[in-house]
Amino acid sequence: MAEVVHTPRVFSGIQPTNHLQLGNYLGAVKRFVEMQNSGIETVYCIVDLHAITVWQDPADLRVATRELAASYIASGLDPEKSILFNQSQVPAHTQLAWIFNCVARMGWLNRMTQFKDKAGKNRENASTGLFVYPNLMAADILVYHATHVPVGEDQKQHLELTRDIAAKFNNDFGVDFFPITEPVIEGVATRVMSLRDGTKKMSKSDPSDMSRINMTDDADTIAKKIRKAKTDPDALPSEAEGLEGRPEARNLVNIYAALAETTMESVLSDVGGKQFAEFKPMLAELAVEKLAPISLEMARLMEAPDEIDRILGRGAERANAIAQPILEQTYDIVGMIRSR
Ligand code: TYM
């Protein structure tokens, strides 16, 4: 069988739950913008159907969806250049997910660590949507025949599952239809850690607001959170080896490097020998310089929710135009009859 070469296309998504935090920005949105500007077609989704795998208050969900759209745009995503939309407006995602529910194996989903983390001890009480969540994620990606998916480190296992689903589908039906997608987990900020515990991921759902910087935080709050961030008593090293066993120090240096768009080595060569009392104000200044304009622009965009809804609607039309034909071809491959 001749191998099909798929045109490069980028897809990624973020859940509209709580405020976007710095890890989402550095690990995902900032890199979405870089990829948009590299000239490849880029499709960025607000995955509202993924969000409801755990309970969401409907009014909060609507606000969080618009706020995420506003952070996409305020961070530099251009709705003319990239396709920006919310998942529930493109039905092909859930339609393809059903096919993938029938391709993926129970054993594969049983191995997903995110399900185990999110379901916690009370597995019996988790929604069935939470269990099949990765199949919907595979459908999000493959319904666009996306070839590249920029994400943070925590999504790696889900992307491996996406590759397994694509390969099994192709193999079961004897086709070379779905691409074997490449995860793009690159840069210094693929795993931004909590400001209170350098061994835990920074997360929207951490009960402590001091553990993260929200994209909606104002300058004073950002500075305060960095000032109070956990550190150790030693000075900063001038080389990366000196960060061994110092997760909080490593995290702050990584955040600095990502915001300054440089490497950890280059930051350390400048700040090596400094105490945290001197480094933290430098980091706070840089963070405010880079993040405050985004939060200001977000607030401005949030004043015109109808305009955000219009942008998402237009994005959904463009997304549908790509996804619908791929869904129809999938149905044909599987053997579904449809009138033409
Ligand atoms: P979500 O909404 O949890 O996170 C969105 C993106 O932010 C990244 N991220 C981080 N990166 C670095 N450091 C952190 N502390 C950090 N926290 C979060 C995540 O890796 C992710 O890239 N399942 C996905 C949403 C999704 C999706 C998709 C992604 C649904 N369908 C299709 C890509 C393609 C999720 O829950 O991301």
Question: Would you write up a description of this structure?
Answer:
- The chain is mainly alpha-helical.
- It folds into two domains: 9-185 and 304-334, HUPs (Rossmann fold, 3-Layer(aba) Sandwich); 209-300, Tyrosyl-Transfer RNA Synthetase.
- 53% of the residues lie in helices and 6% in strands.
- The chain has 13 helices and five strands.
- The chain has helices at 22-36, 48-51, 58-75, 92-101, 106-110, 113-119, 128-142, 156-173, 219-227, 247-260, 264-271, 276-302, 305-334, and strands at 9-14, 41-46, 83-86, 148-150, 182-184.
- The strands form two sheets. A three-stranded parallel β-sheet has the order 1-2-3. A two-stranded parallel sheet has the order 4-5.
- α8 links the parallel β4 (148-150) and β5 (182-184).
- The longest helix is centred in the C-terminal third of the chain and has 30 residues, at 305-334.
- It is globular and about 70 Å long.
- The two termini are 28 Å apart.
- The structure holds tryptophanyl-5'AMP (TYM).
- Residues 11-15, 23-24, 27-28, 47, 50, 137, 140-141, 149, 151-152, 154-155, 158, 189-192, 201-202 line the site of tryptophanyl-5'AMP (TYM).
